[in-house]
Write a sequence for this structure.
């Protein structure tokens, strides 16, 4: 089992972290981005404010205050636009926070922001007289704000990944748009000879060059040099070219570290400024130098992306080819097993074949053989066919006295015929039972071969892509996640028992995914404990090998079904948390309801499915949900849920009254309440696993 105990949170660490959960950074970001403009429009403030309202975490109020301050600074040069932005934000604040928690919150955010912005802009612009051009301008402003609001909401969800430097392309592009808004807001802001937009631009070109190399730095430099103003004038185009070339030249020295990057950047900046913009040489060098100083003080991280990675060595290519071949072999074996399964289903004998067996045994030595099967063939054939049908329908109730009189007159050995038919049908039922078991086993085997083929195929892709320079073990991942996962566990055993049949696990099975599992073995005591523990160990091995959760559960089910003729089944309640987002996947196989405790309400999630290990194929219900910081996920077994014999859901009402500080506090409170309600006369084992996602401060 994974090292789940290391996940206890130590609150208050890394207080200085650069996220939107503090006070200074949200205010500064809101202040700058609200001032940003494109072609005379101010779309950034409304979009960022709406995204903050939906984000709804610590730092939101400071961010909105910053947006308000930034908009207020526009009053001197554009009072109408400033009032329009504030009015739009005021209207959005009435209903956008209510969208929080909805599965389509981002879609509704974009639509509502676009509609409100467009309507307010149209009302303000056409206050005196309506014109078509003003309506088109309002529509463009609404669409732009709606789209940017969705992008900014996406960016806020993945801010931690951005500062770690291991973000995806989509996350990087979202934050690049925020940076464009910031640079646009900084345009023209200077303190003596220090140009703040150049300071920020220099810092981020160096940041991208260090982590992603020349190509990415060149693209970012060109975009940040041109897009903040989006004006086709010689100075703006020159800035795009200068910063694009500066990013490319700086990124070429990526392997030389910060010193090499800094020297390259300052050299290229000096060269281009001397020849192209000599009038701002001192200001440009001073501002770029401050950006370089900030970059040198910023902590370095090792990126998982490498845009200038070397080509795989021939040995690696050979290994990848062999691994792919093995995956194809397992695929072919799976197809063969499926084909064999289909052939087994077709091999059931028809009644005429069974009649031939009966004739060989009973009619062969009968003196009337020639009469029955030559002159009266059709009558004899229909008699036997009806006899088989009757025995198959009536089973053991058929005897000679129940048969029609004309059958007795026609066949002198009807009693022997009846016994023969009953024997043959019983024999066929036995064969059919084994045939069904063989078919089920072949089906399970085919699924396992397909799962193994998929795992090997994923391994080949990883070898070919060479994503991870450093291999990270699950236990190491668990220790690294202790800063933002708070886990609490409490349990009790049935009265008179010393061992609980319920078990749990916490498993870091992927770089961005963490599984929390609760399992209830059949019965109580040592046997149930061994069964649930075995199931968790097998599931852990399958997940860490590379099986998808659903495939791993099917594989576990097949193992338990084939393992023993005795009944051996377990329930599985799994919560899979995405550590880079709020996504939560609940997989409930024969499990009790689960709960998410939110600030305003307790939500219950349940499904109806059989436990693992009963049938050859188990239904795997999957529930897609969200688990945000400061919310609790509660997984329990039936020993907790069924404390009250009347079937009432006491746990949901109990959770409604709780206001815990930690996950362990809530887990212990649930167990104490269960003991109290049962009068300490516990009829079953019980376990509760509580998971809380913390906010970084």
């Amino acid at each position: 089992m994974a090292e789940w105990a290391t996940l206890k949170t130590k609150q208050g660490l890394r207080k200085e972290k650069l996220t939107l959960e503090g006070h200074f950074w949200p205010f500064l970001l809101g202040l700058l981005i609200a001032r940003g403009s494109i072609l005379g429009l101010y779309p950034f403030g409304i979009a960022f404010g709406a995204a903050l309202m939906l984000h709804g975490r610590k730092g939101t109020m400071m961010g909105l205050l910053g947006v308000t301050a930034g908009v207020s600074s526009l009053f001197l040069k554009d009072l109408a636009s400033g009032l329009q932005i504030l009015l739009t934000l005021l209207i959005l604040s009435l209903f956008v926070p209510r969208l929080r928690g909805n599965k389509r919150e981002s879609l509704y955010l974009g639509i509502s922001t676009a509609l409100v912005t467009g309507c307010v802009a149209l009302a303000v612009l056409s206050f005196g007289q309506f014109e078509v051009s003003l309506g088109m301008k309002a529509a463009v402003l609404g669409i732009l704000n709606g789209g940017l609001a969705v992008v900014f909401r996406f960016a806020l969800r993945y801010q931690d990944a951005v500062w770690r430097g291991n973000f995806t392309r989509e996350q990087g592009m979202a934050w690049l748009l925020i940076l464009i808004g910031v640079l646009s807001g900084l345009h023209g802001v200077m303190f003596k000879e220090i140009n703040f937009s150049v300071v920020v631009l220099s810092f981020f070109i160096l940041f991208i060059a260090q982590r992603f190399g020349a190509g990415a730095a060149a693209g970012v430099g060109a975009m940040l040099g041109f897009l903040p103003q989006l004006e086709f004038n010689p100075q703006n185009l020159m800035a795009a070219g200068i910063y694009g070339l500066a990013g490319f030249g700086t990124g070429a020295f990526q392997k030389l570290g910060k010193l090499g990057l800094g020297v390259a950047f300052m050299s290229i900046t000096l060269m281009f400024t001397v020849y192209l913009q000599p009038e701002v040489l001192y200001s440009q060098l001073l501002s770029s130098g401050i950006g370089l100083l900030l970059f040198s003080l910023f902590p370095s991280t090792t990126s998982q992306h490498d845009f200038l990675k070397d080509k795989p060595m021939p040995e690696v290519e050979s290994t990848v080819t062999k691994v792919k071949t093995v995956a194809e072999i397992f695929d072919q074996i799976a197809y063969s097993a499926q084909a064999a399964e289909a052939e087994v289903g077709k091999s059931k004998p028809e009644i005429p074949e069974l009649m031939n067996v009966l004739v060989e045994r009973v009619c062969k030595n009968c003196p009337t053989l020639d009469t029955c099967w030559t002159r009266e063939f059709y009558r004899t054939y229909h008699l036997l066919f009806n006899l088989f049908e009757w025995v198959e329908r009536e089973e053991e109730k058929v005897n000679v006295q129940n048969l029609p009189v004309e059958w007795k007159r026609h066949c002198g050995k009807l009693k022997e015929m009846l016994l023969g038919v009953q024997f043959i049908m019983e024999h066929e039922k036995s064969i059919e039972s084994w045939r069904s078991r063989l078919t089920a086993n072949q089906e399970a085997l085919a699924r396992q071969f397909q799962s193994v083929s998929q795992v090997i195929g994923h391994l080949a892709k990883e070898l070919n892509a060479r994503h991870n320079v450093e291999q990270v073990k699950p236990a190491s991942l668990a220790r690294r996640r202790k800063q933002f996962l708070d886990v609490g566990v409490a349990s009790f055993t049935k009265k008179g028992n010393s061992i609980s049949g319920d078990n749990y696990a916490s498993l870091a099975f992927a770089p961005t995914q963490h599984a929390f599992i609760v399992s209830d073995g059949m019965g109580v005591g040592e046997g149930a404990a061994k069964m649930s523990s075995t199931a968790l160990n097998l599931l852990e091995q399958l997940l860490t090998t590379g099986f998808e959760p659903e495939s791993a559960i099917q594989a576990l089910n097949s193992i338990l079904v084939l393992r023993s003729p005795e009944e051996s089944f377990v329930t599985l309640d799994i919560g899979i948390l995405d550590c880079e987002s709020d996504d939560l996947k609940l997989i409930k196989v024969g499990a009790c309801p689960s709960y998410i405790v939110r600030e305003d309400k307790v939500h219950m999630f349940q499904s109806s499915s059989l436990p693992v290990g009963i049938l050859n194929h188990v239904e795997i219900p999957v529930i897609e949900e969200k688990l945000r910081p400061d919310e609790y996920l509660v997984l329990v077994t039936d020993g907790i849920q069924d404390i009250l014999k009347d079937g009432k859901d006491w746990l949901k009402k109990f959770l409604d009254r709780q206001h815990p500080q930690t996950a362990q506090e809530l887990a212990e409170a649930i167990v104490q309440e269960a003991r109290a309600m049962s009068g300490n006369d516990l009829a079953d084992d019980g376990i509760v696993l509580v998971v809380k996602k913390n906010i970084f401060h």
In short: The chain has four domains: 18-166, 187-308, 310-465, 474-693.
